[in-house]
């Protein structure tokens, strides 16, 4: 496959027809450039295993170049040189451009990731432009405090931008995780060096054209798709990058933190893995609980950090719930992401496919009951059947480790205390859900589970006004809500002596 | 049938034909007033009628309140998520940007301020304000207090409901933006009365509000007189909050009406007699330029006008010379001419009022250094006027003139000038010019005013709170402070296990 600086992909599907053109090079200092060492990657369509396009991948040298461009931009024509109102306008403009190009970007995302076009268009894209608008609204509201202690001095805090922010995002929600970092970082006046996953750079590359069109000054946003152990590592180790925001696996999160510690002690925020419990009590609305729980684990092919992958059902409704859950899972349509009826597409890659299949095998080997699925779906592409295990015990790998696939582990419980203990028996702490009509129990359980998000009577409901982030080994820092702004500001206290003599 | 205002603008700055319906804006429609009466809108450059607009009466206020309540209960309030309110407000911003020149031209025609000021300050500021509050709409958060195991407590910041807003004629569009911005962001519906002198930009905004897609009844605008329509709003039993900008004398009436009716929440932004204090070590050139802007911008029709200028004796003569020179150079005339600085006062009533203050100054023995008389023979133009040789007992030193008239007072020391500066019923703003850090901050802190400007005057930002001490007002506008005016705080206590 030849390398061209832009590529046009022709879509001719039931749900989307059209030609989408995207740049294939790195986006540094406002220009599309080849990587210094001319690295490329062939992107694969996970539904067909066929090649999509060849695009550039950057390595350490390109990251360094991008960081320098971001540093220069921060000093010369961003940061506090540009008032919040102006940053707000640019973010709004970008949101409008994302909306105008929704179908095209959704098509690229579905093609690249394997998520359905429907999900990309109905969820990923609207969330993306909503996040941009939400943080556009914050851009001129980054406020400090005035703190008056005595009459002979004044004290106040400035919430300054940090400087150059490194952003590393994964392949499961390439666009929305990128924007979750970019939007607050830009709102606060930082410049960006972003490294999308080498597997899924298409939506980010398309976004570069919109960033230019919106009018962001050169060097404010730089995008360098690349491999984790080269480009990603370079972001973590860079002496010019002041802060890194990472979404991905816990394993990689450790590497980023180490790299930050060894280099310039850059600030870090990490949004990592999870093994989130959904707890369904006897008095829950069973039909609703089933629907939410199905979506909780099978949405996005189970490739979701907050996936409700451990489902605890109280004894009184266990049989009823299990039957309905299994029936629903059986009806989920697996197949072509561009078919109107498809619910679940392929896993992202061969490696992920093997990994998930490996967990399924271990579940069987360790003695869990395979209630549904467990096998590859079809013969082409990385499709896995929605899989349900029952009779699981706490120490099984399928109960302890993050599978990141369409595999649910269902367990029966009797008492509240017992299930809370089991739910907390994990190194993770990203999210949890509790289903009950009882107000006291709802609050008690939500309060007692060690997780950064507690959903009561639903699962995976996005609300960008509230912060998202993990307890324990699920991460540090927050995305979304007002709290995310903390990750992207440096607080300076200014004391002015207006009368203290020494 | 409400009339249509049609006007052909043919100025260097703006050439276009403008045409729009000038009825009352109630429930998304433009309608006649209940009495089918109209109010003439006068061009202050020549006293001629520009057009007539429908007049709102107390009965129309009732209709508007009904529409506002219906909208609040169905299509607005907490029925519309903040993110959606934000999107609508952003659409309004885009429409204001698209029609910015027209809005500026209407403002200049109606109020008499220059097209340039209208475009660069009034319209630009209004756009920035709505944009700023659009960003708050989905961020109206409450608190969760200390969490314990047996009780959850949190506060909800809910919209109040139907709010009444009464705005003045000096910055018609900007004052509308300062009011509807936070009110809409917080989810309230609005019944707004523009000044009977300057309704045009408010009415034009109603057309944009419709175009933006706001549900009918969310914003209702009725032009009317203060003692009928304004009074109906402040006395209304189904309006839970009134916000007013205008004179202190009318502010009292609003507060009384609120007290007598339903104890509605009141915020007032009233008059001022703001001191501008210039120390020996000030940058004289800058002090002069800001002082000019402080009193003569907007023809002195600014609540924060720096109308009492205190100059320290060390630089008095130099300041005076340059201040006179600059004042002499100000061009007065056609608001649409590109080099005009000052247009006419807004109305005959205001013209007469200012002229009578000038006469009172002369009669009391103050010296007119420049101006002190009408400019030209047509329209309500008054020459920029400087009085010296004044004493604190004079009306021109104590009372708000609201015209291009300032008093210049020499002072010796800091203690004395701060005392004089604070010797007023008002407390809206104050300015101090000095390079000395300690003196700048200490003086700013000691001046009893809601805004203290250091080395500037009349400098406003959408995100910085604004309002008065003492009889200059109650409450704050702009910034997130304004949100407090438009939220009702409900505390929710959830008992999670404490047994009686």
From TrEMBL, chain A:
Domain of life: Eukaryota
Domain Aldehyde dehydrogenase as annotated: residue spans: 39-494
GO terms for biological process, alphabetical: acetate biosynthetic process
Keyword Isomerase: no
Classification via Gene3D superfamilies: Aldehyde Dehydrogenase, Chain A, domain 1, Aldehyde Dehydrogenase, Chain A, domain 2
Keywords: Oxidoreductase
Keyword Oxidoreductase among record annotations: yes
GO molecular function: aldehyde dehydrogenase [NAD(P)+] activity
Active-site residue numbers: 271
Any Pfam family matching the protein: Aldedh
SUPFAM superfamilies cross-referenced by the UniProt entry: ALDH-like (SSF53720)
Family the entry assigns: Belongs to the aldehyde dehydrogenase family.
Protein name from the UniProt record: 1-pyrroline-5-carboxylate dehydrogenase
Species of provenance: Suillus plorans
From TrEMBL, chain B:
One of the Pfam families matching this protein, by short name: Aldedh
InterPro entries associated with the record: Ald_DH/histidinol_DH (IPR016161), Ald_DH_C (IPR016163), Ald_DH_CS_CYS (IPR016160), Ald_DH_CS_GLU (IPR029510), Ald_DH_N (IPR016162), Aldehyde_DH_dom (IPR015590)
Key word Oxidoreductase present: yes
Domain Aldehyde dehydrogenase: 30-492
Molecular functions (GO terms): aldehyde dehydrogenase [NAD(P)+] activity
Keywords assigned: Oxidoreductase
Oxidoreductase in keyword set: yes
Record: active site: 269
One annotated GO biological process: acetate biosynthetic process
Domain of life: Eukaryota
PANTHER family, sorted: ALDEHYDE DEHYDROGENASE-RELATED (PTHR11699)
Family as reported in the entry's similarity comment: Belongs to the aldehyde dehydrogenase family.
Protein name: Aldehyde dehydrogenase domain-containing protein
